[in-house]
Amino acid sequence: MTKTLVVVESPAKAKTIEKYLGADYLVRASYGHVRDLPKSRLGVDPEHDFSVEYEVPEKSKEHVASLKKTMKSAEGLVLAQKAGLDLNTVMEVVKVADFCSPLLVSNGRNILKRDFSPSFALKLMLKDVGLIEKFAKSLHSPTPALRVAEKNIETAVALGFGQENASALIKALEKETGVEVNGR
């Protein structure tokens, strides 16, 4: 059975939270920061709009590798937010750590800002899913996950989000569950 991975900072918190969440969740600790400025050089480039370069500290590499491995078999990812922590910073960490879904990496900031402006409309995506399904059938190849994606996209289109991009799937889930995703 696949589970949702919940990442918290401290191992002690991980054990406690896992007891409360139950069997559907794997709670793991990041053991503190998973990225930092380079120790051997300046990590800010004043000649390129002060862009910042981060690296995974040596002491965190083993923990990040473990989280990546665990995420490969997880069905979802929850990042437990410390009070006062900026969620945009969390999104940057997710990108650097590279253990999340492409949808979250590409649309995470937009989801947190509640920006669901179109880039590739769900209606077009639904059409592509249909084409992929036909192609897979011609190869006699089962595609069970594709049916789940198709159902979610169909639901979002039926709820009126057909002209919006894939991040609008979050809005459809919110509408169906009555729970709002936001960056507080």
Please provide a written account of the structure:
The protein has helices spanning 11-21, 58-72, 87-97, 102-112, 122-138, 144-161, 168-177, and strands spanning 4-8, 25-29, 44-45, 51-52, 76-79. It is mainly alpha-helical. It has two domains: 4-100, Rossmann fold (3-Layer(aba) Sandwich); 122-177, no CATH class. It has a three-stranded parallel sheet, with helices on both faces. Strands 3-4 form a two-stranded antiparallel ribbon. α6 packs across α7 (168-177). The longest helix has 18 residues, at 144-161. It is globular.
List the main descriptive attributes of the protein structure presented here:
single chain, 184 residues, mainly alpha, Rossmann fold, 2 domains, 51% helix, globular
